[in-house]
Backbone:
C-alpha cells in the first residue's frame, strides 16, 4: 500500500486541453458559493421567528377610571409602569435598559436591583450603569373605552394620553 | 499491515470444520492482531485499531512529563466524555418546557434513581471543564506551545474555549430556576449591546423579546445537539493537528537525539513509520529519545482518566448541584449573579455594559486569536516561563490575574444592588 505522494512524476489536474472541465469547475464553484450565501440568509430568516408565542406586546389594562389621578402602578408581568397625573396617562417601561432586569418603583423614581441603576420619575437615568432612559410606550383608548398599551410603539418621554 | 498471525489452515471445507472455526474466524475478523506482546506488534495493533490509531506509534519522552502538560488537555477531554454520558442520561428525564422543566429537576432529586447524582456529576464536570480548558490554555501559553507550526491549533483551542463557555451558558438556563432565568436575562442583554446586530442577535437567540419558552427550547437544542456536535468536530481537528504539527511542543534539546541514542537505520524503520509523515519524522535518522505509545502513553492516559472520574465521583457524592426557587419574573433575586466564570464579565458590565460586556471581552478574544501571528519568535518553546519570553508571559499573566480578580470581586464582594460588601 502506497500512501506517500509520488514525487517522480509531475501530475497536475490542470489540463489545458480540457476547457470544458475548467468551465464546469468554475460554474460549480460559483454555484456552491451562491447557495452558501443563500443558505446563510435563509438560516437567518428561519431562526428569526415571525410569530412569538409570548404574551402580546399590545394589551388592554382596563378603564381610565381604574387608575385615579396620582397613580403609579408597576405591572411586573407586562413590565410597564402605569402613570396617571390629573387627566393624563402614560406607560413607562420597567425593563432596565442596562441588562434587562425589572426595575422597582422607588421614592425618587425607579431603582434596578441587579446592578444598581437609578431613574427619576420620568425614567431618566440618575445613577448606575444604565445607558439610556426608560422608554415610554404608546397609550391609546380603544373604542370600548379600555386603555391600550402597545409596547412595540415607543413615544417620546413626556407624551401623555389625555383621558 | 501484515497480520503477525498465521491464517487458520484451510482444512477440508466441510460444514463441521466451518462451524468449528466459526468463533475463531469471527474473532479474527474483528481483531486483526492477536494481543500483542512485543513493541512491533503493539505498534502494529495501535496503528490498525480504530480507537488506538489516534496515537502516534512513538512519543517523545518530553510529552509524557507530567510537570510539562499536567495532563490538562486530557482532563478536559475526559470531563467532556463524562458530560456527554451523564448529559444523555439526563435527557431521558428532562423536558424543555417552562411548565415542566423545574418539576423535572425536583424529580431528579426525588424519584429518578441516581438522578441527583447524575445531575451533580454533570454540573461539577461542566464547571471543571470550563476551569480546566482555561488552565490548559494557560499551560500552552506559558510553555510557548502556540508558536510555529502550531498557530492554527492555538486558534482552534481558543474556539474550543468559546464553545465550552457557550455550552455552559446554554446549559445554565435548563433547570428553569431563578438563578437560570436571571443569569440568562442578564447574559443575553449583554449580547444585545453588540454594535449593529446586537438587538437582532438577542432576538434570534431568545426567539422572543424576553426569556421564555422559546428561549428555553432554543437553548436546549443548542445545548444537547448543535454545540456538542461543533465541539466534537473541533476537538477531532484539534487532536489531528497535534499529530500533524509534530506532536506536543518540546524544547530543542528534547527534539535532538540524546547523546547516547543510536541512529535508527532505515531498514529498522518499519513500514508504518513511513506513513506517519510529519516535520519530526526523518526516515533513516530517527532520534531515539522517544518511547512507544503503548504502553507508556496509554498508561498515562488511563491514569488521568481514572483520576478525573474519581474526583468527579467524590465531589458529586459530597456536594449537591444548586437549585433555587422556580422562575418568578416578578422577583429578581438581589443580586442576580451569573455563573462564576461569567462573574468577571458581570463585574465589568456593572461599570459599562458595552465596554464590559462587548468591548473588552471582544478585544481579549481577538488578542488570543492573534497571539501566534503577532509573536513570531521561536525561542523559549517547551519550557515553563522561559526567560526569553519574559515580556509575553508577563502580559498574559497580568491579564489572567486581572480576570481572576474581577471574578473574585463579582463572586465574593458584591451584595444586594451590586454594592460592595465584605464576605468576612
Residues:
Amino acid at each position: 500500500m502506497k500512501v506517500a505522494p509520488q514525487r517522480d512524476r509531475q501530475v497536475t489536474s490542470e489540463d489545458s486541453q480540457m476547457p470544458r472541465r475548467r468551465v464546469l469547475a468554475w460554474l460549480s464553484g460559483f454555484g456552491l458559493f451562491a447557495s452558501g450565501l443563500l443558505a446563510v440568509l435563509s438560516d437567518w430568516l428561519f431562526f428569526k421567528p415571525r410569530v412569538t408565542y409570548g404574551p402580546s406586546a399590545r394589551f388592554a389594562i382596563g378603564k381610565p377610571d381604574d387608575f385615579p389621578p396620582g397613580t403609579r402602578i408597576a405591572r411586573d408581568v407586562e413590565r410597564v409602569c402605569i402613570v396617571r397625573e390629573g387627566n393624563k396617562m402614560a406607560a413607562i417601561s420597567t425593563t432596565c435598559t442596562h441588562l434587562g432586569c425589572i426595575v422597582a418603583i422607588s421614592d425618587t423614581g425607579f431603582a434596578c436591583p441587579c446592578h444598581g441603576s437609578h431613574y427619576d420619575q420620568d425614567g431618566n437615568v440618575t445613577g448606575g450603569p444604565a445607558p439610556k432612559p426608560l422608554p415610554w410606550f404608546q397609550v391609546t383608548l380603544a373604542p370600548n373605552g379600555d386603555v391600550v398599551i402597545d409596547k412595540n410603539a415607543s413615544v417620546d418621554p413626556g407624551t401623555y394620553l389625555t383621558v | 499491515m501484515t497480520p503477525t498471525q498465521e491464517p487458520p489452515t484451510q482444512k477440508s471445507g466441510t460444514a463441521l470444520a466451518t462451524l468449528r472455526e466459526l468463533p475463531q474466524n469471527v474473532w479474527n475478523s474483528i481483531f486483526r492482531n492477536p494481543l500483542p506482546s512485543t513493541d512491533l506488534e503493539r505498534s502494529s495493533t495501535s496503528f490498525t485499531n480504530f480507537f488506538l490509531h489516534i496515537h502516534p506509534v512513538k512519543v517523545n519522552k518530553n510529552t509524557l512529563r507530567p510537570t510539562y502538560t499536567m495532563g490538562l488537555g486530557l482532563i478536559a477531554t475526559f470531563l467532556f466524555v463524562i458530560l456527554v454520558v451523564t448529559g444523555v442520561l439526563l435527557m431521558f428525564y428532562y423536558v424543555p418546557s417552562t411548565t415542566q422543566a423545574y418539576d423535572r429537576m425536583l424529580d431528579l432529586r426525588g424519584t429518578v434513581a441516581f438522578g441527583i447524582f447524575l445531575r451533580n456529576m454533570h454540573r461539577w464536570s461542566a464547571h471543571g471543564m470550563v476551569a480546566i480548558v482555561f488552565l490548559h490554555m494557560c499551560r500552552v501559553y506559558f510553555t510557548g506551545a502556540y508558536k510555529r507550526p502550531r498557530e492554527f491549533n492555538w486558534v482552534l483551542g481558543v474556539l474550543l474555549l468559546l464553545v465550552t463557555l457557550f455550552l455552559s451558558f446554554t446549559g445554565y438556563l435548563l433547570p428553569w430556576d431563578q438563578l437560570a432565568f436571571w443569569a440568562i436575562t442578564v447574559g443575553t442583554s449583554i449580547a444585545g449591546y453588540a454594535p449593529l446586530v446586537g438587538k437582532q442577535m438577542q432576538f434570534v437567540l431568545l426567539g422572543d423579546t424576553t426569556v421564555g419558552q422559546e428561549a428555553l427550547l432554543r437553548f436546549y437544542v443548542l445545548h444537547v445537539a448543535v454545540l456538542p456536535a461543533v465541539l466534537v468536530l473541533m476537538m477531532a481537528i484539534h487532536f489531528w493537528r497535534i499529530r500533524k504539527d509534530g506532536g506536543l511542543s518540546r524544547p530543542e534539546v528534547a527534539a535532538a537525539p540524546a547523546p547516547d541514542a543510536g541512529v535508527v537505520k532505515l531498514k529498522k524503520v518499519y513500514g508504518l513509520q513511513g506513513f506517519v509523515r510529519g516535520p519530526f519524522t526523518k526516515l533513516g535518522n530517527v532520534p531515539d529519545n522517544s518511547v512507544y505509545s503503548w504502553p507508556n502513553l496509554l498508561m498515562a492516559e488511563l491514569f488521568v482518566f481514572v483520576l478525573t472520574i474519581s474526583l468527579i465521583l467524590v465531589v458529586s457524592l459530597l456536594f449537591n448541584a444548586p437549585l433555587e426557587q422556580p422562575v418568578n419574573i416578578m422577583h429578581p433575586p438581589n443580586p442576580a449573579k451569573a455563573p462564576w466564570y461569567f462573574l468577571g464579565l458581570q463585574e465589568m458590565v456593572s461599570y459599562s455594559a458595552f465596554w464590559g460586556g462587548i468591548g473588552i471581552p471582544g478585544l481579549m478574544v481577538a488578542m488570543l486569536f492573534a497571539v501566534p501571528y503577532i509573536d513570531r519568535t521561536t525561542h523559549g518553546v517547551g519550557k515553563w516561563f522561559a526567560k526569553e519570553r519574559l515580556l509575553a508571559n508577563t502580559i498574559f499573566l497580568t491579564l489572567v490575574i486581572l480576570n481572576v480578580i474581577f471574578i473574585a470581586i463579582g463572586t465574593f464582594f458584591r451584595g444586594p444592588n451590586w454594592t460592595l460588601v465584605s464576605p468576612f
In short: The interface with chain A takes residues 182, 185-186, 188-190, 192, 200, 203-204, 207-210, 212-214, 274-275, 277, 329-330, 332, 334-336, 349-354, 416-419 of chain B (CB under 8 Å). The radius of gyration of chain B is 26 Å. Residues 68-254+305-376+387-418 of chain B form a domain with the Cytochrome Bc1 Complex; Chain C fold (CATH 1.20.810.10). The first helix of chain B runs from residue 15 to 30.
